[in-house]
Batch of 4 targets.
Target 1
Amino acid sequence: MSKNIYTEFQIKELEKNPNIINASERSISYNPEFKTKAIKAYKKGKSPSQIFIEHGFNLEIIGKEQPKRCLQRWRDTFEKFGEDGFLTERRGKGSTGRLSSKPQTVEDQLRKAEARIQFLEAENDFLKKLEELERRAVKKK
C-alpha cells in the first residue's frame, strides 16, 4: 500500500485509466492484464516509470516511486505463480496462498467428508461423557 493519500479528484482521475480496477483514498487496484503486460515489458528492458507512463498513468498523482514498488511485488508474484498469480486472490482469512483452481476429485471429497464425520462423532462422544460427569457431580451434592 502506498503512503500516498489520494484526494477525490485524484481518485476520479485514476479510475478513468482502464488499467485500474479500483482506486481509494489509500490504494490502487490494478488490472491483472496490465500487471502481466508490465512484467513482460520490464523483462524486455523498459523501466517501471516508462511502463506506467506509456499506459496512461500520471506519476505526479501516483508518486514517482510507485511504479518501482509495484513492479517489484508483481515480479515476485509472477515468479512464484506465473500469470495465474494475478488472477487468484491469495490474501485474507483462510487463504493458504495456493491456487485452488483444480476441482476436487470425488475421492478427495469423500475422504474429507469421512474425516469430518469422524471428528463430529468424537465430539459427540466427548459431550456425552461430559454430560454424564456433570450429572454425577450434581447427584453427589
Target 2
Amino acid sequence: MESRHYDVLVIGGGINGAGIAADAAGRGLSVALLEAEDLASGTSAWSSKLIHGGLRYLEHYEFRLVREALAEREVLLRIAPHLVTPLRFRLPHHQGLRPAWMIRAGLFLYDHLSRRVSLPASHAITFDADSALKPEFHQGFEYSDCRVDDSRLVVANAQLAAEQRASILTRHKMLRAERQPGGWQVEALSPSGKTLTLLTKTLVNAAGPWIRQVLDQIQGSQSNQDVRLVKGSHLIVPRLDASDAAYILQHQDGRIVFVIPYGEAYSLIGTTDVDYQGDPRAVQIDAQEMDYLLTLVNQYFTTQLKPEAILWSFSGVRPLMQGEQAGQAAAKVTRDYHLELEQPAGQAPLLSIFGGKLTTYRKLAEAALAKLQPFLPQMGPAWTEQARLPGAESISSLSQAQAELQQAYPFLPPATVKRLIQAYGLRAHHWLNGAQCLADLGPSFGPLFAREVDYLIRHEWAQTSEDILWRRSKAGLGLKEQDRLALEAYLTQKPPA
C-alpha cells in the first residue's frame, strides 16, 4: 500500500467492486478495494457464465436494460476477447408455449435494439435427425450471445485497477466505518489479525449479497432500501450435444433454462430462481431445484439424465432490488441496478450498489463515478470503453494468439495452449517466459503447472487451492484427489505473496 488515505474506498471484490475500482483508479483517483475473502468468491463466480442482452427481459419491458446490455456485449467482445467469446443459442419451438410470432418479434428486437457489429443475426432453423433434441422438436430459432469466464473477468478488472495504482486488499474484512471531517474512517481486520485504519473521501458499498450487513456496520447510514436474495443453481453434467451450440429451453412456468457448453466435455444447466434466506456463503442447491432442472432437460433432449449424472453443482445468491416488487415471483424481479447516494448536509458521501449483472458492470461503474464526481472534481474522464483488459492488449484474434503461443512453445499440447490463451490471453507469456520443455514449468497438478500457480499467487491474489482450482481456473472439475493434495502441499511450502 502506497498510502492509507484514499479518494475512493470500495467494499466488495466482486465484478461491480472490481469494475468501480478500475474505473476510478484510471481517472487518476487514489483507490483501495476491501474484500473480506477472495476476489469473485461470492455471486460473481456462480453465474451462468454469460454476457448477454437478456432475451427474456423483453417480456418484462426492460428495454433500457436490454439495450445497454447488448451494447456492452460488443464492448466486452472488444476489450476482453480472451474471456468473452461468441456463442450461438438454439431455441426449440415448444407447441403450446410462446407462439412463433412472439419469438420472432422478440428476436427482431434483440437484433436491432442496439448496433450489432460482431455477431450474426437470428434466424429460424430446422433440427435434423442428428439433433440432440427429441424428434418432436424439429423447428426452432437461433441467435447470438456470448459466454464468459466470470471469475477471471473479476480478476482482470482487479489487475487493471492495480496497474492504475489501486490497492487491492483481499481477505480484509471491514469492521466499521464512521464519518470524520472531510471523509470516512474505516477499520478493517487484516489477514494477520491486526486492525487496519483507512481514511477515504468517499465510500462505496459494493458488497453484493452482504450489502445490508455492510450498511449495518456504517455509522449513520440511513438507507432503507431492501435487498431480495434470490438463489440461482446450476448443474454440470457430461456434454449433451457434441456441437458448440447452447440451448435455451422454455418451461411451462414461463421461465427459461440454459444448457451451455462448459469446458471440453461438459454441459452447464441453469439457472433456478428461488428466494433465499441465510448466509450467502452457505448456499447450496436443493433436491427440488435438481429435479426442476433435470425434468426440463429431459423433456427436450434424447439423452435422459438421472441424478447420478450430475458431476458437480453450484449455487449463487443474486442481490436484487426489492422495491415495489415484493409480491412478484423471483424470476420477474428486475436485474437492473440502482445506485443510492447518502450524503447528509455536506458530510462525506456513501454510495451503495444494489443489483446489477455481469454484462453491465462497466456501465454501472461509469454511473457510480458520475455520482461521485461532485465530491471528487479532480477525476478524469470515462476511459474503460476503449481500455483492453490485462491479457487482451494486442489480441487481434484468438486463433492467431493461440498459433503464436504454440509457435513460441511447441512442446505445449494444443489443448493446453487453448486453455492458456482463454484464461490469460497474452499474459501466458509472462510465466511461460523462456521455458524449453514441460519440465521447465515444474510439477503439474492436473492441468496446472507449478510456474502457473506461482504466477497466480504473485499476480492474481490467489492463496488457497480453492482460489486456484475454482476461481482462477476451473481445474477443480474432474481433478484427481492426489493432484489436489499435491497442490495443497505445494502451497504450504510457498511463502506469502
Target 3
Amino acid sequence: MQVSHPVYDVVVVGGGINGVGVAVDAVGRGLSVFLCEKDDLASHTSSASSKLIHGGLRYLEHKEFRLVREALAEREILLAKAPHIIRPLRFIMPHQPHLRPAWLIRTGLFFYDHLGKREKLAGSKHITFDAATSPLKAEITQGFEYSDCAVDDARLVVLNAIQAREQGAHIATQTRCTSAYRENGLWVIDLENTQGRYTVQAKALVNAAGPWVAQFIQQNLKQKSPYGLRLIQGSHIVVPKIYAGDKAFILQNDDHRIVFAIPYLDQYTLIGTTDHEYQGDLNKVTITQPEMDYLLDVYNDHFKHQLGPQDILYTYSGVRSLCDDESDNPSAITRDYTLALSQEQDAPLLSVFGGKLTTYRKLAESALTHLQPFFPTMKKPWTEKALLPGAENLVSVELLIQQLIQAVQDVSVQLASRWAHAYGSRVWIFLNNISMLHELGQDFRHGLYAQEVDYLVNQEWAITSSDILWRRSKLGLEFTETEIQALDEYLLELHKRRAMSAVA
C-alpha cells in the first residue's frame, strides 16, 4: 500500500470538460492542482455530445438569454483558442410553417446574430430551396441559414488536460476517489487505481463528476446534495453520408424539439440528439429502440432519401446532468450551470451542476471566482487569450496540411488532414522529423501507425484501444475486430515495457 499525503490547493474530481476546465484555469493562476478521473478523460458525457460549439438557438425559446449570450461570445473565443479542432459550420433550418412562424424564427436569428460578440462567423439569412437539387422533400421550399461551430469534443478535453499538466497540474486517469472528508481545515481524499490506494490532501475540493455529482456528495462525502439533479439521456446515430456539401441541418419536430443532421468525418452524417429522463446505470448508457425510431422519423420527415434501421452504422449515448428546475419537459430544463459552494473549517467544497461544452471556460472562471476568498494571492483570469496545445504557431490548418504532404512522402491528403485537425502544430512532435510513412513503425491500418500510438500513450493518457480509436483519433468506425485485436496486443506489450522501465 502506497502511503503519501501531499497537500494541493485544489483537487478536482472528474475528467470531463468542466473538470479539466477548472484544473487548467486554477493551475494557471498559481494554485497547485490534482485532478482524478475514474476512467479515461472525456469517457462519458463529454465525448457523447453533438460535437458543437454553439450558442443554443433553441434556448432562446426558454428565455435563457444569459446562457445564450455567454455561449455566443465563447464561440469566437474558442475558435481562436483551438482553430485546429474547432471550425465554423453553417446550419440550414428548413421552414415548417405549422411549427414556428417565419417571423418568430427571424426574430430568434436576429437575437442570435447580435446577442454575443460576432467577428469571425457570418450572420443569418433567409434561403430558398431548388426542388431539383435540394436533399429536402419538395414541399420544403424555404428556410434559414446561420453560423455555429463544430468541435472534436473529446480532444477539447484532452487538450485542456495537456495544458493543465504543462502548467504544473497532476492529472491522474483511471483513478477513483473512494471517499473524502474534512480534517484539521483540509480535505483528506482517498484514491484508488490499479497500483493500489493512496491519499492526498487539499485546501479545496471541486466536484466536477458530471452525472455522478450528486451521488458523489451523498455516497463518497456522506453529505446531502444542495440541489436535485435531472439526468437526461441524449443519443445519436451515425449513418453513411446522406447529402452533398459541408453544411448541417437543424430539423424542427412536432414536439417542438430539434434534431441535428451534421456532416461527420467526411463520409458520415451524425443525427441527434434525444432528450429523456435516465434512471439506469451511468456506466452503461446505450441508445433505446424508441430513440432510434425517433431520430429516423425526424430525419425521414425532412429528406428525400429515406433511412431505415439497417442504415445505422454506430450509435452513442450520454447523460447530461442538469440542475433540477422542476420542468415537466426534459427539453426545457435549463442547460445553464449552477455552482454550489459549501464551506466548513475553511475547507470549501465546490460542486458543479449542469453546464455545456461551449461554456466550460466561463464555468471554470466562475468556479475560481467562488474560490477566490480562500486563495487571496490567486492570479487573475488568463484562459481567454491562451491558445490550446496545437494552436501555437498555427497559421492555418490548410497550410499545415500542405506542409505535412510536402514533409512526409506518400502521406495522403486524408491522413495529413486528420493529423492537422487532431494535433495542430504539435503533429511535428510525434512525426519527429520522419520523411516516409514506413518510418512511423507498425501500420495498424487506416492511417494509424505505431509512432502516433506511442505518442497518445506517452503524452495523452491513452491506455486502451477504445481510448485511441473513439476519443483520440475517431478511427473506431474504420477498424475491424481483427485490426482492433492487433492494436490491443501492441498496447499490451507497450504497457509491459513501460512498467518494466519504471521499475528499472
Target 4
Amino acid sequence: MATKKDEKGPSMIETFQEFKETKNIDRTTLVSVLEESFRNVISKLFGSDENFDVIVNPDKGDFEIHRNRMVVADGEVQDENKQISLTDAQKIEPDYEVGEEVSEEVNFSKFGRRAILNLRQTLASKILELEHDSLYNKYKDKVGNIVSGEVYQMWKREVLLIDDEGNELHLPKSEQIPSDSYHKGETVRAIVLRVDNENNNPRIILSRTSPQFLERLLEAEVPEINDGLITIRRVARMPGERAKVAVESYDERIDPVGACVGVKGSRVHGIVRELCNENIDVINYSSNTQLFIQRALSPAVVSSITLDTENRKAEVYLQPDQVSLAIGRSGMNIKLASMLTEFTIDVFRVVSDTEADEDIYLDEFSDEIDQWIIDAIKAMGLDTAKAVLNAPREMLIEKADLEEETVDYVLGVLRAEFE
C-alpha cells in the first residue's frame, strides 16, 4: 500500500525538504507561510479556500489538505466545491445523510504539475522575502555594533565576509584601514555601518575606519566605560595613523585618561594592534572650548587662543619651538584637533614687539611676488611678511591653495628681506 508521502509524489516532498530547514525563520512563521501558499493555490483552483483545512508539518516535510462540503440531495448540487450529492457522500461513508458535513482529504499531487510548480514558486518567493526581512531586521538592530566575519572573497573595491549563519557582509575599500591586509578564511572585526535595503535585498555594509569602531573597542577594553563611569565624548581618527579620544568621568575619584590607557598602555595595546598600529591619544574632555582646544593640540603647549565661536574658528598662538609639535607630522595633529573640537584651528607663532615693529606689508613685495599670490595669502587674514613667516607652511599650502614650490618661493623672498 502506498504511503501518504508516496501519494503526494516525490516533487512535493522535495518542496518541503527545501524549506523545512530555512535559516532565520522561526517555525511558527514558516508554518504560516506554507499554509498561506497552499491556500493561494487552492483559491486559484477552486475559487475559494474558506472550506479547506490545511495542516502543515515542516519538521517532517508533510502536509494534509481537507475539503469540507455539505451533503445535499442528489440533483441539488449548486457549488461542487462546497456541496456534495448524497450518493457521492455515501461512497465515502455509507451512513452520511443530507445536511451533514463531509471532510475529505485532498491529494494535492492530483491537481497537476502546474499547480505543484505554482506552489513551489509561491513558496520560494515568500520564503526569500521572509529571509530578507529577517536579515534586514537582524542587522538593522546591530548598526554601530561590532560584528565578526570570515573573509570569503577579496576584490579591488571590497572584501566579502561571511557571518556564522552564512550571511554576506560587505567591507568596501573606503571603509578599510589603508594598511589592512586580508587572507581568505581569516576572521575580521568591524562595525555595522549601515544596512541598505534596495528592492528588499539587504546589503550589510561594514566599516573599520569609522570613529564608532574605536569607541566600541574602547568600551570592550575599559570596564569603567561599559559601567557608565566614563563617557567617550568625542573621537577623531585618521585610520591606521593616529586618533584622538576625548573622555570624561562623572566620578572625581576616577582618572578617565589613566583608566582608558591602563598601566603602561595595557588597555590600548590590543586596540592599537587591531587598528594596524594606529596611535591613540586620550585626553580629558572639557566644556570650556579654549581649554578643550588646548588639550586637543597636545603635546604642544599653547600660549594663548582667540576664539570666533560664531564661525567656529580658533587662532592659536604658540612659542616658536611649539609650532611644529602643534602641527604634527604631515599636519596630522592639528587636523585631528580640528576634527575633535569641531573648530577650524589656525596656528601662529608668538611674535615679540620688536619683531612686530620691523614688519612689512605684503603688498610691498608685488615686484617679486605675483599679485594673485599675495591676494590668496591676504584672503587668509595674513597681511604682513612676519604674519606669513609665523604661519605654518602646511597651512599656507592647504588654505591658500598654493603649490608647495610657490609657498617655498614666497617664504624665501620674505625671509631674505629680514636677513
